[in-house]
Write a structure and sequence with these properties.
39% of the residues lie in helices and 19% in strands. It is elongated and about 90 Å long. It has 15 helices and 16 strands. It binds adenosine-5'-triphosphate (ATP) and magnesium ion (MG).
Length: 442
């Protein structure tokens, strides 16, 4: 019995009282995606296993160790998406979107599934927001993508988040680099973990991303990709930096960043913070010029990033960044008697129709308990209706913050009167807090 009231390890619930936090950051992301010209794509939560094996890459941790894969009753192997890029890329190909014009700019919100050891900032079900841009090899696109991520963090008022960028070259320059890496790691064959040993031949760059302390220690002394970049990749990387400089974005070049996907090329980047412990990467992305071809399409240079929503919220909480709760109740109407309840219901209906949050008693509480409840839900105004009020045709609205009271007519002019009252008192508080000049307040 206990099983059905316990969630699966590594998953989290977002309860009604917390969801405004998610909605706030999601709205900022949606808004920023719109400003940068990205439109949302929604893809299924599961796909053919083969898609991720190819799209994420056989030698990655995700594919080798972390996927939720199962065989269906129809004997197909399907996998819960471990990330958002492969599904989006599949949809782009399946619907032949490149025929409709380039670039294709898509944004997504996805839940992701990875069988990892649950810990702070590492879950088995987590959520990502991402942007993808298909069909451009211009460094302007790399810079625009990074700017979009930076704008989101700026709007959310995140502090102490640094951007680290690198170039991991193209298949041409990487062939030389792989040789050098292989020669280097071969000296430490007896110390590398088993997974890294298996990567030595297929994709030695993956070893640079290994989380085992011994492998990462060895990786510190490995040759750097930056010394092996071909002219074209060098130039691309320099251009990306030029555009970032032009936009006033701060970054550092970190030659050890290689990122998790196998098909990353050229630019890779991460936004990292020290404030939430070991899992400090909030956003990761880069270019994957070979991905679409790997999935069976024509050559279509592409790029994207994904940010972890849970980690982002952790940073905001840690940094004490206040998130406004727009779901607060504007008006709570307390009632005494059935007639009053009917009147309240009529008024509430009018108020709700114009988009304000309004509530009344639905559990049969007495007047005092209703007022206590109104206070608990943070109602901005309360109104009590009983026989007296019904007879007089007026009721007093109380501003719960200031204690100020105002009489409102209980007829067809109620809605206008309430909205006016709210407006006039909001302006009061507004100028009290921000002064007369409110030009810099959104
Ligand atoms: P890490 O190095 O932390 O394992 P990753 O390289 O596997 O990250 P990506 O595949 O690039 O991560 O995913 C992008 C973002 O998604 C990460 O930067 C992080 O914010 C978030 N993320 C990844 N894995 C998890 C997880 N298991 N739980 C919560 N968030 C995650
Ligand atoms: Mg990982």
């Amino acid at each position: 019995m206990a099983l059905i009231t316990k969630k699966i390890k590594g998953t989290e619930d977002v309860l009604p009282k917390q969801s405004y936090r998610w909605q706030f950051i999601e709205n900022v992301m949606r808004e920023e995606a719109r400003i940068y010209g990205f439109k949302e794509i929604r893809t299924p939560v599961f796909e053919h296993t083969e898609l991720f094996a190819r799209g994420v890459g056989q030698t990655t941790d995700v594919v080798q160790k972390e996927m939720y894969t199962f065989t269906t009753k129809g004997n197909e192997s399907v996998t819960l998406r471990p990330e958002g890029t492969a599904g989006a890329a599949r949809a782009v190909l399946e619907h032949a979107l490149p025929n409709e014009g380039l670039p294709i700019k898509a944004s997504y919100f996805v839940s992701c599934y990875r069988y990892e050891k649950p810990q702070a900032g590492r879950l088995r079900e987590f959520h990502q927001f991402g942007l993808e841009e298909y069909g451009t090899q211009s460094p302007v696109a790399d810079a625009e993508l990074i700017c979009a991520a930076q704008s989101i963090f700026d709007r959310l008022r995140l502090k102490d988040l640094h951007l680290e960028i690198n170039s991991i070259g193209c298949p041409t320059c990487r062939a030389e680099y792989h040789k050098a890496l292989k020669a280097y790691f071969e000296q430490y064959k007896d110390q590398l973990c088993e997974t890294c040993l298996s990567r030595l031949d297929k994709n030695p760059m993956r070893i640079l991303d290994c989380k085992s302390p011994i492998c990462s220690k060895i990786a510190e002394g490995a040759p750097r990709i930056t010394e092996y970049l071909c002219d074209e990749c060098k130039e691309h990387f320099a251009s990306v930096q030029k555009y970032l400089d032009a936009a006033g974005i701060n970054y550092i070049v970190n030659p050890t960043i290689v990122r998790g996907l196998d098909y990353y090329t050229k630019t890779v980047f991460e936004f990292v913070t020290d404030c939430i412990g070991a899992q400090g990467t909030v956003c990761g992305g880069g270019r994957y010029d070979g991905l679409i071809e790997e999935l069976g399409g024509n050559h279509l240079p592409s790029l994207g990033f994904a940010m972890g929503m849970e980690r982002l919220l952790m940073v905001m909480e840690k940094q004490g960044i206040e998130i406004p709760d727009f779901s607060e109740c504007s008006l709570y109407i307390a009632t005494m008697g059935e007639k009053a309840q009917e009147k309240a219901f009529e008024l509430l209906h009018n108020i709700r129709e114009c988009g304000e949050t309004a509530e009344t008693d639905v559990v049969g509480r007495g007047l005092r308990a209703q007022m206590k409840y109104a206070d608990k839900i943070g109602a901005k105004y309360t109104l009590v209706i009983g026989d007296n009020e019904l007879n007089e045709g007026f009721a007093e609205a109380k501003n719960m913050e200031t204690g100020k009271k105002a009489k409102l007519p209980l007829d067809e002019s109620f809605l206008d009167s309430f909205l006016n009252l709210q407006l006039s008192e909001e302006t009061d508080t507004f100028s009290a807090v921000f002064g007369k000049d409110n030009s810099d307040v959104e």
